[in-house]
Predict the 3D structure of the following.
Amino acid sequence: MMPTLKINGEDKNFENVPSTLKNLLEILKVDEATVVAEVNGNIIPRNSFNNTALHDGFKIELIRFVGGG
Amino acid sequence: MMPTLKINGEDKNFENVPSTLKNLLEILKVDEATVVAEVNGNIIPRNSFNNTALHDGFKIELIRFVGGG
Amino acid sequence: MMPTLKINGEDKNFENVPSTLKNLLEILKVDEATVVAEVNGNIIPRNSFNNTALHDGFKIELIRFVGGG
Amino acid sequence: MMPTLKINGEDKNFENVPSTLKNLLEILKVDEATVVAEVNGNIIPRNSFNNTALHDGFKIELIRFVGGG
Amino acid sequence: MKKLIIANKEFNSRLFIGTGKYSSNEIMAKSIEASGTEMVTVALRRVDIQNPQDNMLAAIDRKKYLLLPNTSGARNADEAIRLARLARAATDINWLKLEVTPDPYYLLPDPVETLKAAQILVKEGFVVLPYINADPILAKKLQDAGTATVMPLASPIGSNQGIKTRVAIEIIISQASVPVVVDAGLGLPSHAAEAMEMGADAVLVNTAIATANDPLKMANAFKLAVQAGRDAFEAGAAGVKNQADASSPLTGFLRD
Amino acid sequence: MKKLIIANKEFNSRLFIGTGKYSSNEIMAKSIEASGTEMVTVALRRVDIQNPQDNMLAAIDRKKYLLLPNTSGARNADEAIRLARLARAATDINWLKLEVTPDPYYLLPDPVETLKAAQILVKEGFVVLPYINADPILAKKLQDAGTATVMPLASPIGSNQGIKTRVAIEIIISQASVPVVVDAGLGLPSHAAEAMEMGADAVLVNTAIATANDPLKMANAFKLAVQAGRDAFEAGAAGVKNQADASSPLTGFLRD
Amino acid sequence: MKKLIIANKEFNSRLFIGTGKYSSNEIMAKSIEASGTEMVTVALRRVDIQNPQDNMLAAIDRKKYLLLPNTSGARNADEAIRLARLARAATDINWLKLEVTPDPYYLLPDPVETLKAAQILVKEGFVVLPYINADPILAKKLQDAGTATVMPLASPIGSNQGIKTRVAIEIIISQASVPVVVDAGLGLPSHAAEAMEMGADAVLVNTAIATANDPLKMANAFKLAVQAGRDAFEAGAAGVKNQADASSPLTGFLRD
Amino acid sequence: MKKLIIANKEFNSRLFIGTGKYSSNEIMAKSIEASGTEMVTVALRRVDIQNPQDNMLAAIDRKKYLLLPNTSGARNADEAIRLARLARAATDINWLKLEVTPDPYYLLPDPVETLKAAQILVKEGFVVLPYINADPILAKKLQDAGTATVMPLASPIGSNQGIKTRVAIEIIISQASVPVVVDAGLGLPSHAAEAMEMGADAVLVNTAIATANDPLKMANAFKLAVQAGRDAFEAGAAGVKNQADASSPLTGFLRD
């Protein structure tokens, strides 16, 4: 079975899990400057994206600001 | 041309104009006890229906109570 | 009895009735530019103040603008 | 110093402390049928008034229904 | 409840009922009975020559209910006067709900034509109950002209919006020497109760009852509400307060 | 009128009466009777040792009227619970009007302490009728906690201002699985009728009756108004319209 | 903001100011300036012979502000017409705020006498702005008679009660072919904004500004509120909803 | 206009703007500018992986506008706290609009969970602006817990119904030691002006502007109305009167 990351509530399979959060954002084409991330429930400061290692089964939340009242 | 009575705003032709208002109501099957009548703009008391003569061209209004607020 | 003018509803006596409306205003120290006048019920244009003769018993109204809503 | 009961928040001195809650109510002329009582914070059922012993320093609350919305 | 007197006639009920818009004469008759009213309004219209049988009047017990013919449909004083005279000829009574409504959409009353018609009809011996906008000056002119009541509207007829003219009606009541009957727009019993609490002498209701799912029950509801509002007026309500005012005593609290 | 059921007890009257502020126990008793109520609230207070005779309870016929002790005076959950237990010890019933009002000026209920007390008292077997601000979320939490009703306020207690929380009470009614009793601030019968027309299951009234010039007449007025409002709710009122809607026919006019 | 046009005269401001009740001519003048108005009302009174100096008119810059003389004090059409003619003789303009108020307590306008006076004054060439009760039929009669505007009252003059005649004013606006100026009773800027949001063309304010603790600041507040209300009317407000409508998205929630 | 101070930060504008429901980021940005606001609310949502480009934040000039992240979508205290921490991680500021709305239909705030979250977040150093029902007791508990403001609702969010909780908000203002921001339901500038006239310190508006036909014009209208309402509050309005009070003098009438 392929390695998997649960991203924003949905399982996503990868040939190889991106090594870091930064890699993942690049693959997803998400501008890291605009998001805040949780990995396995822990908030990751933006300046730690590139030294946050990811592994099979990790749960990742990618959050962003939208219009709201 | 046939003789005519204008009844409630509409011309109605007759072989012979009913001789009295009472006759007219009978012909129209209108219960005289329930109506009030004007002939040529004059109000006719109910007890005069039978001695109110009608002639060609007379204008007759037959009025009755209905539900209202 | 002294000659009298009824001014704004009140009788006012004079040794001699002022000859004109203009004189009266001067006596009353009323700036003619600020008032509109009626003499015996007739409106007097401001430019006629000085040729409007007054006589004993005349009724004069002197009106002016005040604050109002 | 005289023995004391704290009744409804106020100290009351007695030659001799009434032996029971029932005695106290009689002394105070309070109809026991109309009150509910706490002794030292414990609610006393009405049928136990006469076997509830009182001693110097006890805190007693005598409560009754009044008009209320 | 103090009795209502209009033109020397006593009324035990302060609710007047309109007879329009009922699904049947039978439901109308039963609703009238359920309302406890003693006066019902009726309108005058041309007999339908094609179908001359229908006679709603037969459904109304004239011994129990005073007929109050209206002049609905009149767009000016002349049309109203003509209808008034026909109504009197048709009945043995001279009571009249005077309404003059030039505008067919909002059916609002015409102050000038209504006053003109009232002055003439009073002289002709009619007992005139004029339907008017909530206009205190007009109300005074009508009472001075000898009308038996004034009937200011609460809101546009049939709109069920309730009392949207409260300030003006309060002034009318404070100045009136004849009974004030709040007419038109009362959509719920609470609206009728409010009018009575304000000191109105009576209310006239039609649409709210006739168009309810259950007209009989609604008629009874209005009957109760009018009694409630009048009783409250007579009982003398305490005023409104901005702060709270405890219902339970503010002393004797159980505290340590 | 459909019967009201609270905690499996049937009520023929949807008007509950508070017993505070009456000028005498006799007038209180007569007003209660005139109101047709079947449940009256009472408060608990310390006996006045100086004047221990007065006993208002004797004036209330316990066979005809269910006693609903309140926790007035409680500033937090603990005080309310203590009063609740005393009330139950004093009577043979476990019904309770739960009120927690930390602020002595506006006497508004505390949502957090009220919920806390309700959760405990329900577990202790009380039939809890909580007095609350018109807060739909809080109402839902209380009904989920097992309270027998929710009692949102119309306006500050004793203020007679009427229903100043209409929008919230409409939401509470639309979401409620227990009876909704509108409490506090109803100053006139029309206010009570309005609450019932909105679909409230019952109302609680004290100040408006007790402080009226004629409490008995006002009690009767509220009785009638509550019936009127409930009947109207059951009768199904027609909706509000923006334009007019003639009560008299729009055809058959007398025109030349 | 769309310009207002009355009798072919353009106005950049939709706020008209009354000049009564100010503590001094100087504060009046400064308040007028702060309000941004272009038209101010004035009244006609007898000169006080004992003290003939005072001349408030000197405080008003006639180049910046159009004078709108009123007929206040007139109890009938004849008195109003007499005052109108005097006003025209006193000034070079023929604009007139027509008011006929027989009742000295509520100062409400007389519909019949106002219409009578309007018909005559229009024929005499006056630009007539009649002050009226919120009566849609009367408003229509006046506009048919050739008045330049209609000026329905919001509530009794000087009462600061705000818009108590909303339903009628909405109808007047919907039927008007001349500008509708809401006059009398506007006590707060929000009242003026509400009138403009309803679609009124302008408002007239006096008491609320003149009797404020700080008239200049209040004058500016009304200036802003009238602009706000007009802008909102032109911007096209979305309608009222009975349920909620989230401002934040209802998707993409952070849930496990 | 007196400056508003929240948590030691000065605001020249008393209007806060929500950024939801705009048809485009460009119209949002222009409306924000037209409103003159200095603080805008934003929500947190999951990135749409399918379409990761959109970034509304780029449209907001962080130098001119303080971001106020909200916790919309949170159904309880834990979810709100989690969102609060994410918001702080995403921005360099710790201001937070706390909202906990378990009910997805009316989106009304949960008093118990909101208080619980506020107590924790204040300890964590957040500047907490809680969105609450108009509950004076809850407002007091929150200010005692250290929130920077209280934000009672006027009516259900997005409903445009205006101030349907006036009595409660007046009490909240009279008791508040922190700024009171009226939030939710303000549908027209007159509603915002009314809130400010009542003494509210600020208002928050989103739907009324974002869903107007012309959002920029409506944003400006709210800007003016908030200034008008605040000026009126500072200017000290005269009170409401039941009778009339003439604007023109009651002496010097022209009589024979």
Q: What stands out?
A: Chains H and D do not touch (no CB pair under 8 Å).
